[in-house]
Amino acid sequence: MNIWNTIVLAIIEGLTEFLPVSSTGHMILASSAMQIHDDEFVKTFEICIQLGAIMAIALMYIKRFFQGIDIYIKLLVAFIPTAIIGFLAYDIIKAYLFNDIVVSVSLIIGGIILIWVDNKVQAKASQVDVLENIPIKNAFYIGLVQCLSMIPGTSRAAATIVGGVFNKLDKKQATEFSFLLAIPTMFAATGYDLLKTPIDFTAEQWKLLAIGLVLAAISAWFAVKIFLNLVDKYGFKPFGYYRIALGFIYLILMT
What we know:
The protein has helices at residues 3-16, 23-33, 40-48, 50-60, 70-96, 100-120, 136-146, 156-165, 171-196, 203-234, 237-254. The chain is mostly helical. The protein is globular and about 50 Å long.
């Protein structure tokens, strides 16, 4: 893995982490296309640079975290299912599901679901005034749906957004709740991965990781700003069509 691979993967991570298109899936496909050797460092790199993207969203929404403890409670409740299932299924997921076929099929299925959801809830109004007031049971249900994103290519953002619009939130609120829920989820996932992985990286690998974190943060900042505007204007359909096209293109190229 070289500096150019690092730049490409970091930008892809930042641009796709909060979009319902699967950042992990994109990085797996990009790594395969660039013929990057899938060793422990690469797997850890693809997970750790998510911290850069998460830092961007934490800074963007920092004022919200000083408005009271309600949002912390709702995010904690939503995070619990992912924490439990992720802990139990970590080894199986990393060993058997991080491959091109799983990602491509998940992209296609997820794209179809996004288009269906967009049609079904196009004019759906929110049933809560602010995110802090979402009922605890609905926050928990969103967390359960987020567990599906452990399948590479599914997209954590897509899963939580779909969960949100079926649990009293409108499109914009579901998208913002997805952003906020990413903070504890991805910090925990990255931390757990580091604990499970022997840290014997070279000085060059540490440099690549640092570059990746910075580039992922910068690209994520711009991606979130653009994404919110796109959702307001066009909904989720464009992302659904994109997922389907990408999944089929990659399946065709692999055969």
